[in-house]
Amino acid sequence: MDKKVQSIKWLYLTVFLLPVLAMAQEKETKKEKETRIDEVVLVGYSKVSKADVTNAVGSVKADAVKDMPVNSAAEAIQGRVAGVQVMASEGSPGADIEIKVRGGTSITQSNAPLYIVDGIQMDNALSIISPKEIESIEVLKDAASTSIYGSRGANGVVLITTKGGRKKAITSINYNGYTGVRKIMNTIPVLDPYEFVMYQYELYNKGGIAEDITTFGTRYGSFNELENKYKNIKKRDWQDELFGQEAFNFTHNLSVTGGSDKSAFSLTLNHVEEDGIMLNSGFRRSMANFKYDYDISKKLKVGFNARYSRQLISGAGTSATGSQGTNRLRNAVRYQPFEGGSNVPIDDFDPNYATITNLVNPLILNDNEVKNNRTNDLLLNAYLNYNITKDLTFRSVVGYVQRDNSVNQFWGTVTSDARANNNQPIVQLTRFQTRRITNTNTLNYTKKFGDHKLDLLIGQETVQTDGESSNTYVKWLPTSILPNEAFSNIQAAIPPSGMIQDAAKTAALPPDRLASFFGRANYIYNNKYIATFSLRTDGSNVFGEGKRWGTFPAVSLAWKIKQENFLKNKEWLDELKLRFGYGMAGNNRIPSYLYDTFFATSTDYGYTFGSGVTPGATTGNTLANRNVTWEATVSKNLGLDFGFFNGRLYGSVDGYITDTKDLLILAKIPQTSGYEYQYQNSGKTQNKGIEVSLGGIIFNKENFTWKTDFNISANKNIIKSLGANVSANNDYYLVASGWVNNLYDFIAKVGNPVGTYYGYVTEGRYEISDFDYNSSTQTYTLKAGVPSSSAVANGSKPIQPGDLKLRDINNDGQITAADQTELGSAQPKFYGGFNQTFRYRNWDMSLFFNFSVGNKVYNANKIEFTSQYLYRDNNMAAEIADRWRWFDNNGVKVTDPAALAALNANTTMWTPPQGNYILHSYAIEDGSFLRLNNVTLGYSLPKGSLESLSIKNFRMYVTVNNLFTITGYDGYDPEASTRKNPLTPGVDYAAYPRSRFILTGVDITF
User: Fold this and answer.
1) What is the pLDDT of residues 144-193, one digit of tens each?
2) Fewest CB atoms within 10 A around its CB: which of 571, 654, 757, 821?
3) Which of the pair, 339 or 49, is modelled with greater confidence?
4) What angle do the packed helices 223-230 and 193-205 form, to 10 degrees?
5) CA distance 835 to 841
6) 516 falls in which pLDDT band (50, 70, 90)?
7) pLDDT of residue 3
């Protein structure tokens, strides 16, 4: 086993097991029984006691995150629930958060769970909820618990309950605010000025072409002056200048709660101003949430909730989901690392340098690319609760959710987009709105008679979603126009003679309708044996006639072993419960109306008439499929809950197998059909794994407590079938991650996990011993039997000593596409997190870690920044300084084999390849890490010390987020994943660097 992985494992054991041993040895001085098993958790339209839960449910309560100063609820739960992975795609403000429950089931569609906020469906809910307003988060993980939600429940369900007021409570005001600063964690090492120019000397002089030699001398100087000039020249660290600013954060949380005999209310306000470490980037958010509950009578209760959120993400960032041409990071890495080298000052745009290098000064480019992404979210919901009898309750919930998103982008004159359009600025205005109306009605009957307890639920639900989008792309704006002027004056664009401006594109989103009927029966006998049955039927307009309805049954059983006579009186045992669940959940996450052929109008298919474009009509490139129907996930779960020593040690173990069939796949089809794609039900996947959660109170003294919580999960994902997506003779197809056009660097293969990298195996470099040398012509020729990687890696140029060498996998004596192989997977062997909480008198401290072991990361930056390919005068990654050398210290080319071998005796790196970008194992790195995500130290003033000021609580704290990461990964961050396709995870390409956040704050309650 890798020594680094072994050391991380030992660190986990040391940090967690030693405290457990200490707890076991400590003699209790104070018996304070914890009430964990008496907690109430939300499970499928109703609440149940944690002691009676029969399913796999992970829960995070407000107390677990109340002292964590983070802006996103997703950050607050990261690493806290077994089987749940929370990953930020990169380190930019407002970066996309990906949440996977038990590995995800789909291979081409979204694996995001279903979010339910106070009973209403929302998308990306964790990004718009302040952690301070969370009462609880329940994650339903197995189909036995998610099937009651039917549609979209296949990838798990996240139930979020926000805080409300309390009846008969005096008004309480709480303010929590903090301010801090972010700094970049690390940068990608690059060649210094002298190393850079010596590499350029080799590139320009190696071929012996007089024109190239002259060009080098004109640009950089003669060889004799290089050392003196470039070892003393001022170095420009572009990454530090672009990402090195101190990025400040100001966050304010204010809540007011209270209630009367019949009512309760809460008002929560949140405002965040966060600068990004990258110049001109940042995040702003303001939100308000008001909840009100009122008892009209003893039988009738009503309430409503209104939430509004506005957020702005500014900055073009470093990457996009597109190909290499959208990579902005490359300008900060590859731009020449010094002043001068051209007749144009370094801080001005150099059009000649841009032409020969495809690079722009990163600071100038950053000022010329402006992006403002604004999102407004509105949630309105109301409920009515009527107790028909003491045992029968009717509840109705109505909700309205609206999201308005607008993205304004500006490309100034120095950008490649503008340079391709008469050197004039360009503006793109994108608008998107979605609206969702939800109505849920349930009848709940509960009855206890003797040793029997019965809980019955029936319900009906409708969900309808609509929306519109528009896209306006305007070229040929005045060169002097400023971004904000351009956004509001697109009419200022004047097309050059003979050119026609693109027409705006508008579209209505296909209406999405869902009608559902569901029921659940829960039976408990003698407080020992529990059985739960549920059934849901969903009808979706996504599918055609005869395929619209899906039925999702589930059953779960539990045995409270602790209640048996042979254990009932064991004081050392608090809880021992065995659970089993079996259920089916569905997925319909594809666009509506794909079962029939519709025509759409667009200027993309139009023709010019006069000075305008007349739209044309087309059926698009997706072939209709009347037979497509529900994707189905069947899950089996076996779990054990336990608690010992009056709440001092508690936990659970779950094992599961999840099979998904009839995968909804956007499949490529033969173009002889007249179309390119078709949605199909094709293929099967399986996830199976084990989850362990442990917690304990290690010390529980009057003045000192120490609590710990730990979870670890292992999930094995495999593709069981690819159905019609592969030919009869194959069991795989290749997938392109998209960071380079036409590079198929992933493989979807039966028996493999999703996210398997596919490429060549790096064999180091060709050495002198691989060649025959002709002294008369001073040329090297590969020996017979030595495979040549010329066509694959070197642009078909002859292989020379020092060139990149690839493994001949099939032993046919040549390197071709047939020598590609599987290079590992983005799937970790195990992952999890652990938290340590300490309290000493009025001091408190917490340390929260998360970890991942065994996953591979595809460092695509490494491929780009160590490959020569199209352009000279580009800076390279620092390892290129250790490359194979052709010129001695006097600038003389060495060709003699003995002298050349001596010159390179201490070098290990190959000559940067000159062919197309390819994936080889050099870029596949171990992504294992252990991160100290949060450390907080707080002090609360003694109770009563501020009573004269009507202050109930006053706490001050200092926090460091992302304090350190133990990893062997060479890139910015081992968790980066910049591709959006579920088949291509773990690709680190042009990711926004992650930062360390140091802050201080106060928490005051009046």
Assistant:
1) 888 888 767 788 888 888 888 888 889 999 999 999 999 998 899 999 99
2) 571
3) 49
4) 160
5) 20
6) very high
7) 42
Within 335-388, where are the H helices? 351-357, 362-368
The answer for residues whose C-beta is within 8 angstroms of residue 225's C-beta and 6 or more apart is: none
pTM: 0.90
Distances (CA, A) of 160 to 612, 682, 741: 51, 33, 41
Question: Whole-angstrom Cα distance, residue 268 to residue 135?
Answer: 13
Quick check: 417 and 427 in contact, CB under 8 A?
A: no
Alpha helices in 310-377 (DSSP H): 329-334, 351-357, 362-368
Q: Indicate the helix (H) or strand (E) that contains 8.
A: helix 3-25
978 within 8 A of 992, measured Cβ to Cβ:
no
pLDDT(726) > 90: no
Measured distance CA(623)–CA(320) in Å, rounded: 28
Looking at the DSSP bridge assignments, the partners of residue 474 are: 427
Torsion angle (degrees, nearest 10) of CA 794, 795, 800, 804? 0
Q: How far apart are CA 838 and CA 584, in angstroms?
A: 42
User: Cα dihedral angle (835, 839, 844, 846), rounded to 10 degrees?
Assistant: -10
H/E run at residue 23: helix 3-25
Q: Is the pLDDT of residue 580 over 70?
A: yes
Quote the pLDDT of residue 8: 38
Look over the chain and give the mean of its residue pLDDT values, rounded to a whole number: 88
Query: What DSSP line would sit under 747-812, residue for residue?
Result: EEETTSPSSEEEEBPEEEE--GGGEEEETTTTEEEEPTT----HHHHSTTPPP-TTBEEE--TT-S
Question: Can you say whether the dihedral through the CA atoms of 114, 117, 123, 127 is positive or negative?
Answer: negative
| Adjacent-strand bridge partners of 377 | 309, 403
Query: Rounded to whole angstroms, how far apart are CA atoms 652 and 640?
Result: 5
Distance CA 857, CA 968 (A): 11
Candidates 594, 654, 656; CA nearest to 619 is 594
Burial (CB count <10 Å: 0-12, 13-18, 19+), residue 336: buried
Non-local (6+) Cβ contacts of 121 within 8 A are 114, 115, 399, 401, 436, 438, 463
What are residue 71's phi and psi, to 5 degrees? -90, -15
Three-state SS across 444-492?
Answer: EEEEEECCEEEEEEEEEEEEEEEEEEEEEEECCCCCCCCHHHHHHCHHH
Q: Is residue 611 exposed (0-12), middle (13-18) or buried (19+ Cβ within 10 Å)? A: exposed
Spatial CA neighbour of 267 closest among 130, 128, 123: 130
Amino acid at 691: E
Closest CA to 994 of 959, 964, 953: 964
Would you say 696 and 19 are in contact if contact means Cβ atoms under 8 Å apart?
yes
- Provide, rounded to the nearest whole percent, the portion of the chain with pLDDT above 90: 64
Tens-digit pLDDT profile for residues 26-49:
434 333 444 454 577 778 788 888
Rounded-to-10 torsion of CA 896, 898, 900, 901: 160
Q: Measured between alpha carbons, how far is residue 965 from residues 327, 498, 535, 852 in Å?
A: 26, 57, 45, 11
**What's the one-letter identity of residue 545?**
E
pLDDT for residue 624: 86
| Phi and psi torsions of 122, nearest 5° | -140, 150
Residues 184-203: tens digit of each pLDDT: 988 999 999 999 999 999 99
Cβ–Cβ < 8 Å for 522, 532: yes
Question: Do residues 75 and 687 make contact, with C-beta atoms less than 8 angstroms apart?
Answer: no
> How far is it, in rounded angstroms, from Cα 297 to Cα 280?
55
- The residues with which 514 forms a beta bridge, in sequence order, are 463, 540
Spatial contact of 184 and 870, defined as CB atoms under 8 Å apart: no
Distance CA 475, CA 495 (A): 7
Q: How many other β-carbons are positioned within 10 Å of the β-carbon of residue 113?
A: 25
